[in-house]
Amino acid sequence: MNAGDQRRGLRAHLSGAAAEDIAVRAYADRGYTLAQQRWRGPQGEIDLILRKGAEVIFAEVKSSKTRDAAAARITPQQMQRVMASAAAFLDQEPRGQLTETRLDVVLVWGTGEVEILENAFGQG
């Protein structure tokens, strides 16, 4: 990997981390508690796992310069990966797969605008 690729990779990592921090604050403002950040499951990483009461929320964070560009970064393969990893996480919960859950997408764009798309995968 050359120096330019390393710089781009670092910028992408820092941008993603900043978007996740914005998302965590947006959830906290709504009464949610962060349980895990960048949790690694067998099928891949889940950006944020939050709790509100007995409910567990799995959130995929997407950022870009515009809302539409952030939304366009969501792929069917990612949805499947998040759902599979979420199922693995739920195996550790007292109620297992019966745990009340929601799968969200959080869009972050511009200078910190944020939109939480609740139950974006149509599951839960």
UniProtKB/TrEMBL annotation:
GO MF terms on file?
nucleic acid binding
InterPro entries in alphabetical order: Restrct_endonuc-II-like, tRNA_endonuc-like_dom_sf, UPF0102_YraN-like
Q: Which Gene3D superfamilies match?
A: 3.40.1350.10
Sorted alphabetically, which PANTHER family does this protein's record hold?
UPF0102 PROTEIN YRAN
Q: Which family does it belong to?
A: Belongs to the UPF0102 family.
The source's superkingdom equals Bacteria
Q: Mind telling me what this protein is named?
A: UPF0102 protein TRIHO_45310
